[in-house]
TrEMBL record:
GO MF annotations in UniProt: transmembrane transporter activity
Membrane topology, as annotated: Multi-pass membrane protein
Species of provenance: Abyssobacteria bacterium (strain SURF_5)
Protein's recorded name: Iron ABC transporter permease
UniProt biased composition (Basic and acidic residues): 26-37
Alphabetical UniProt keywords: Cell membrane, Membrane, Transmembrane, Transmembrane helix, Transport
Taxonomic superkingdom: Bacteria
């Protein structure tokens, strides 16, 4: 499309140590019993630091990390705005003129909104991954573990099958169908996993696995029934991509609104997520309303994930790799880990989508392919490095 335009125009008073810093921190054997994890791993995932090198979280350190990550995010937006299959004259693009300006249209009509959308979706997926790993206490959990992406994919495939072309308040019919499918899946999974007013973690995981298998079978059935063009559209959507025929700043603003609200709610409860990482029994003894926290976290992260998947498809690895990478760099305290992962996820997906835009041989590739090819080796490198550091 760029070429076309160019041619034509916690006991709440816990201390501030990483990992929740609760009064149980001097009793690793108690918290390990609750969690079933090894010692020195308060996040339930990969060990972040040596026992003697845990850094105290201060306001200055929090601000320094968040400010640095924000500057990196802004730098990524600026740099990637200048990169694309079509050469961009930044002076001409910024020039104010009544006459239609192809360079300006490429920058402000295609690249910038797409980059901002990539930053939002990457941040949403990475932040959701942090919270899912905390509430499920599973280092392999990601935003798609409960079947949300499968529900969205089934909704999108159904919309393509019915040949829906209309838009609703600026959102395409396929995006609306995908979001509706994700919402129905959220309520379905929650209803099944709930027992006597409690949300059972193992029930959530098992229900999510079953939903993924069943919905995957239905998607394959739909793909087999439609013609080649629709089958290609379904497969391309399932790969995850940010390519659109046009970009709407209204939908971008709407996406920012609900992702921002959901993220602020999760950041507000980040201290309780630290305590929940010690185990439900320990968190409850320290004053956390565990079931209420799990419900709130489940709903907020699920809605954020549903919106992200509906807009761009199931982009893999972002919600798994970035939380672990940020945990290795900054430690497992969710008060710092969540905003760092959100910003890091945005940076990662912006650069990944830039690679996808440039493509291979002039052809754009799905961003989900790039995140898997780049993210997998990166995660293995970080993991090996951390294993060597922790002995």
């Amino acid at each position: 499309m760029e070429r076309l335009l160019d041619d034509s125009g916690g006991q709440r008073g816990t201390d501030t140590r990483i990992g929740g810093g609760s009064c149980d921190s001097s009793r690793p054997e108690a918290s390990n019993r609750d969690r079933g994890d090894g010692p020195g791993n308060p996040s339930g995932g990969i060990p972040a630091t040596r026992a003697g090198s845990v850094k105290r979280l201060t306001a200055r350190r929090w601000l320094a990390v968040v400010f640095s990550m924000t500057m990196l995010l802004l730098a990524a937006i600026v740099v990637c705005s200048l990169i694309g299959p079509t050469p961009l004259d930044i002076g001409e693009a910024l020039e104010s003129s009544i006459v239609p300006n192809p360079q300006r249209m490429i920058l402000f009509g295609i690249r910038l909104p797409r980059i901002l959308l990539a930053g939002l979706i990457g941040g949403a997926l990475a932040g959701a991954g942090v919270v899912f790993q905390a509430i499920l206490r599973n280092p392999l959990a990601d935003p798609y573990v409960l079947g949300i992406s499968s529900g969205a994919a089934l909704g999108a495939a159904s919309g393509i099958l019915m040949n829906l072309q209309q838009s609703l308040v600026g959102f395409s019919a396929i995006t609306v169908c995908a979001f509706a499918g994700a919402l129905l899946t959220i309520f379905f999974v929650y209803a099944i996993a709930q027992s006597y007013g409690r949300v059972l973690t193992h029930s959530l995981l098992l229900t999510g696995v079953i939903i993924n298998y069943v919905f995957a079978a239905l998607i394959m059935l739909i793909t087999a029934l439609v013609d080649f063009t629709k089958a290609r559209e379904i497969i391309f959507w399932l790969m995850g991509n940010l390519s659109k025929t046009e970009y709407n700043y209204f939908t971008l603003l709407a996406a920012f609104g609900y992702i921002f609200i959901g993220s602020m709610i999760l950041l507000w409860r980040s201290r309780d997520l630290n305590l929940l990482s010690l185990g439900e029994a320990s968190a409850s003894q320290l004053g956390v309303e565990v079931e209420r926290l799990k419900r709130l976290a489940f709903v907020a992260t699920s809605l954020i994930t549903a919106g992200a998947v509906a807009e761009a498809g199931p982009i893999g690895f972002v919600g798994l790799i970035i939380p672990h990478a940020m945990r290795m760099l900054f430690g497992p305290d969710h008060r710092l880990l969540f905003p760092a992962a959100f910003l890091g996820g945005g940076i990662f997906l912006i650069f990944s989508d830039t690679v996808a835009r440039v493509g291979i041989g002039g052809s754009e590739i799905p961003v989900g392919v790039v995140t898997a090819l780049c993210g997998g080796p990166l995660f293995i490198f970080l993991l090996r490095r951390q294993i060597r550091k922790t002995g």
